[in-house]
UniProtKB/TrEMBL annotation:
Record organism: Buchnera aphidicola
Enzyme class label: ligase
Job description of the protein: Ligates lysine onto the cytidine present at position 34 of the AUA codon-specific tRNA(Ile) that contains the anticodon CAU, in an ATP-dependent manner. Cytidine is converted to lysidine, thus changing the amino acid specificity of the tRNA from methionine to isoleucine.
InterPro entries reported for this sequence: Lysidine-tRNA-synth_C, Rossmann-like_a/b/a_fold, TilS/TtcA_N, tRNA_Ile_lys_synt, tRNA_Ile_lys_synt_N
Name of the gene this protein is made from: tilS
Protein name listed in UniProt: tRNA(Ile)-lysidine synthase
Keywords: ATP-binding, Cytoplasm, Ligase, Nucleotide-binding, tRNA processing
Amino acids binding ATP: S20, G21, G22, L23, D24, S25
């Protein structure tokens, strides 16, 4: 049943199985145990997550312990607490995966027991949510978690009935979770009320669902390749998109590009309404809505001149003052703004006097001396150097006592010291502000 998976992996691979004790994961566990007899160098562990929401959950944990002890498989048991919200099952899934992934070893692969019925349920859920190709593509057979961790679903092509028949023929013992019959949960309703009745009329419905999802996956993959190549022509940084030349592209493609840009670099799929708002307020009618932003959970999308930006949420630091007492050592800045260091590659500036208090600030209300007696508001300097409004209180300003010396990386302030043979030092700002 999992021959295809075994052929894909190294025969001394480390495997972590997500083991609930139910029919699906029990079948996968015993399938792996059979293959381990043939390939003894396979390293197999299991992890059981106790959701603590069923009065029988303690007994389920004990059942999993008993089974793993009999077949000599190491087992991790972890308890989790799930917030009681409307999207209970989705929250449980996210918390469960986070715990499991945190317990994976380097280069270990994770296995879950998703099957064909799960695929079909996922398709219906995606249709309910109004998903695009990404959602309609369903659950992937293999998924990269990070650079060293991969998730496999070896049973994805098999129906639950097939798993049940294999379990019966091999005298397996598993848990029956009565919550699977509670139709207040969307997935259970789809499984028990919709798919069950559809299969009575069309027995091959689930297999055809799987075929359609494979087609959706191929189409999405091809579309994303086209969009990625197009994005490269318009990216300034990964979080900054130059939209000046996008006007020559048809509206539908512009919308797809914006969606892909967010999906690729923020790892979320924006809603239809969010994408429409970005296009309408930031691209089509931006002159009317000059200060409009589109909020997301951890970031926002804003426009400045001919570019739109993905802006991470940060705490305000404009009132913060950081003293650089020992400026022979790097000064760490707050809110992921990097550090300021003294080195030979930096900008040459006047050296502070012995008793000067060297400090960094992030705002000033005074006019800036650019040349001799010419002063200008700092706002004009930001505009001249194309600094967008949300970054203007994130640029470090170097002060000696209360005197502004240097807008770091942008402008050295003109003052009497600068025009004489003054002692100097060189400083650099090592930062990644363009990613914020």
């Amino acid at each position: 049943m999992i021959t295809e998976f075994i052929n894909l992996i190294n025969k001394n691979q480390s495997i972590l199985l997500s083991y609930s004790g139910g029919l699906d994961s029990t079948v996968l566990l015993y399938q792996l145990v059979q293959w381990k007899k043939k390939y003894p160098n396979l390293k197999l562990r299991a992890i059981h997550i106790d959701h603590q929401i069923n009065i029988k959950s303690y007994h389920w944990s004990k059942h999993c312990q008993k089974i793993c002890k009999i077949i000599n498989i190491p087992l991790i048991i972890k308890q989790i607490t799930i917030p009681n919200t409307n999207n209970f099952q989705e929250n449980a899934r996210k918390i469960r995966y986070k715990i499991i992934i945190n317990h994976m070893n380097k280069n270990e692969i994770l296995l879950t027991a998703h099957h064909l019925d799960d695929q079909c349920e996922t398709l219906f859920l995606s249709l309910k949510r109004g998903s695009g190709l990404s959602g309609l593509s369903g659950i992937s057979y293999v998924k990269k978690i990070d650079e060293n961790k991969t998730l496999f679903r070896p049973l994805l092509r098999y129906k639950k009935k097939q798993l049940y028949q294999w379990a019966i023929s091999n005298n397996l013992d598993w848990i029956e979770d009565n919550s699977n019959f509670n139709n207040k949960y969307d997935r259970n309703f789809i499984r028990n009320k919709i798919i069950k009745n559809i299969e009575k009329k069309w027995p091959f419905f689930q297999k055809n669902c799987y075929k359609s999802m494979q087609i959706f996956y191929i189409q999405e993959k091809s579309l994303n390749q086209f969009l990625d190549n197009t994005l490269l022509k318009h990216l300034v940084f990964k979080n900054i998109l130059n939209i000046q030349n996008l006007q020559t592209i048809q509206q539908e493609t512009q919308i797809l590009l914006i969606r892909r840009w967010i999906q690729k670099y923020k790892k979320i799929i924006p809603t239809y309404l969010q994408i429409q708002n970005i296009y309408y307020y930031l691209m089509q009618y931006h002159q009317k809505y000059t200060k409009f932003t589109i909020p997301f959970k951890n970031f926002k999308i804003s426009r400045y001149k001919n570019m739109i930006f993905q802006i991470d949420k940060h705490k305000s630091i404009k009132k913060k003052i950081i003293f650089w007492h020992n400026y022979t050592r790097p000064l760490q800045l707050p809110e992921q703004l990097g550090q300021i260091i003294q080195n030979k590659y930096g900008t040459k500036i006047p050296k502070p006097k012995k008793n000067d208090l060297v400090n960094i600030r992030f705002q000033t209300n005074k006019k800036i001396i650019i040349f001799q007696n010419y002063k200008t508001p700092i706002k004009n300097i930001w505009q001249y150097h194309n600094i967008p409004p949300w970054n203007r209180n994130r640029i470090p300003l170097l002060f000696y006592n209360d005197t502004l010396i240097y807008i770091i990386g942008i402008l050295l302030i003109d003052h009497p010291k600068k025009n004489n043979n003054y002692k100097s030092w060189n400083i650099s700002w090592i930062n990644n502000i363009n990613q914020h």
